[in-house]
Design goal:
There is one protein chain. The protein has a domain of 41 residues. It is globular. The protein has 69 residues and is an alpha+beta fold. Strands 1-4-3-2 form a four-stranded antiparallel sheet, with no helix packed on it.
Amino acid sequence: MANSPLHSPINPHFFQPLLPGFTNHLDIPVAFFLKHLERNNKRKTAKLRSDASETTWRVEIDGQRLSDG
């Protein structure tokens, strides 16, 4: 059941490598955006966290991009 495509995690997450050019914005993967954010367009901020440390960042959601964080 945990691998069911209808299962939605409590804390939705995605992995995005930090490639050159990410300093201005980070693109949200299309599948993640469509499943978790497109219908919930009231949300204007998100909190990013690192698995490698306790660091978190508050960022702005600008369409399909994260910025200002």
